[in-house]
Amino acid sequence: MSQKKPRRRVLPPHDPQRYAPSPAHPVRAKARLMAHDMDIQPHQHDWGQLVISMAGAVRVEAEQAGQTHAFIVPPARAVWIPAGVVHAVRAIEQAELRTAYLHAGCSLAATRGFERCRVLEVSPLLRELLRELTPLSEPDAPSDPREPLLVALLVAELQRAAPVALGLALPQDKRLRRVCEALLEQPQQDQELRHWAGEVGASERTLARLFRQELGTSYRHWRQQLLLAQALSLAARKRPLASIAAELGYANPSAFSAMVKRTVGMSPREFFALA
């Protein structure tokens, strides 16, 4: 953790007011290619937002109930961000980002579960609807009679999209935050908590207590959730099991399979089918 990190490019959101939704255009979609070293700085909108990566993986950090959460988003997943929520996006690798802004009139805010950030499964239909709406969302695009039909279908797909229990709470304590950020940068690090205690100048007992107090979990369980999210991201890129296990720091696929089975109650093949 003491090694110098490569510098990343931090950029503002790409002209969000240009794509602001309205009653006449309740869903506006836009595309942005993110290089592997690119971050979009923290910001917020007056409207709800769906973040999806069509290719490559991104990490979305969002404030929720006074706490920051990190969501690792492979192509088969999307993150819903309600209006007014501060959020930032970081590319894990080169990614084709699609963003959909939804006007309050779309009624998603009144739909149960959409009052807070959530990870959603992305159906093939939802992906194609976003592709179709992107060119229609350009301010100078000619009117298209399909637009209200596409919007209605996209909202219906979002309402029926299954939520996914992926998301990592991030702590306020600066020492614990350094540990979590280091693991997010390199999930394959398999260090005991006492190692991190020495890195951040706190006792092992203090870090264990902070995990329980601030994140409501143990260090081991938090790291397993991170590995599962990272594994889904790799599986979405059609990486074989042995390659995923090796990249996440496991000595062999069997050890990784045992962790998946123990944590989520299903085999890696069943788990990766979610990707």
Kindly describe this structure.
- With 275 residues, the protein is α+β, with helices and mostly antiparallel strands.
- It is 37% helix and 24% strand.
- It is built from 9 helices and 12 strands.
- It has helices at 124-136, 147-160, 174-185, 193-200, 204-215, 219-236, 241-247, 253-264, 268-272, and strands at 9-11, 27-34, 38-43, 48-55, 58-64, 67-73, 77-81, 87-91, 95-102, 118-121, 163-164, 168-170.
- Strands 1-3-8-5-6-12 form a 6-stranded mixed sheet. Strands 2-9-4-7-10-11 form a 6-stranded antiparallel sheet, with helices on one face.
- Helix 1 runs antiparallel to helix 2, helix 4 crosses helix 5 and helix 7 packs across helix 8 (253-264).
- The radius of gyration is 19 Å and the shape is globular.
- The protein starts with 8 loop residues before the first strand and ends with a helix.
